[in-house]
Amino acid sequence: MLPLRHARRWQLAGIAVLLLVFFATLTPSIWFMPDLRDARLLHADKWFHGMTFAFLTVWFSGQYDRHAYWRLAAGMLAFGALIELCQRMLTYRSAESMDVIADAIGILAGLAVAWAGAGGWSMRVEQWIAARE
Fold first, then answer.
1. DSSP one-letter code for 5
2. Is residue 17 in a domain?
3. Which of 44, 76, 87, 124 could form a disulfide with 93 if both were Cys (CB 3.0 to 4.6 A apart)?
4. Number of compact structural domains in the chain
5. What is the pLDDT of residue 39?
6. Is residue 110 situated within a structural domain?
7. Would 124 be classed as within a structural domain?
């Protein structure tokens, strides 16, 4: 983890984000998405998976150094697989292997954004706040 001044708060915020995503993926999909049989929304679910995991990867890249990005990617992929396993146990959700592939693509996109300069963003936020005080 990066030497953050408020590391504990960043960790708690990260846990909250993961829990929010986890519980959102276990609620009935009709709560979040319209009728997926609509041809215009054919792959909307996969886009949501990719964007969510890109966001999560960028979020956590803000707290970890670049040498730990491989662990971050592995953890995010395991989280995606856990979601699919949990959805498999529910009668009102379906587990799809393509969702994990969409998660992996989102993780790769998030890592690309992190490597391009977004990594360590929470350090910069803390420095910005400290400079304003």
1. T
2. no
3. 87
4. 1
5. 52
6. yes
7. yes
Residues 90-103 have pLDDT tens digits of 988 888 899 999 99
If one counts every other C-beta atom within 10 angstroms of the C-beta of residue 16, the result is 10
Tokens of residue 98, six digits: 């393509």
Q: Is residue 22 part of a domain?
A: no
- How far is the C-alpha of 84 from the C-alpha of 112, rounded, in Å? 24
pLDDT tens per residue, range 43-87: 778 999 999 999 999 999 999 999 999 999 999 999 999 999 999
Q: Which residues contact 35 (CB under 8 A, 6 or more apart)?
A: 41
- Report the predicted TM-score, pTM, of the whole model to 2 decimal places: 0.90
Residue 94's pLDDT is 83
| β strands within 4-55, DSSP E | none
Which amino acid would we find at residue 45? D
Closest CA to 56 of 72, 40, 42: 72
Domain span at residue 113?
44-132
Distance in angstroms (rounded) separating the CA atoms of residues 45 and 92:
15
Instruction: Give the H/E segment covering residue 72.
Output: helix 69-88
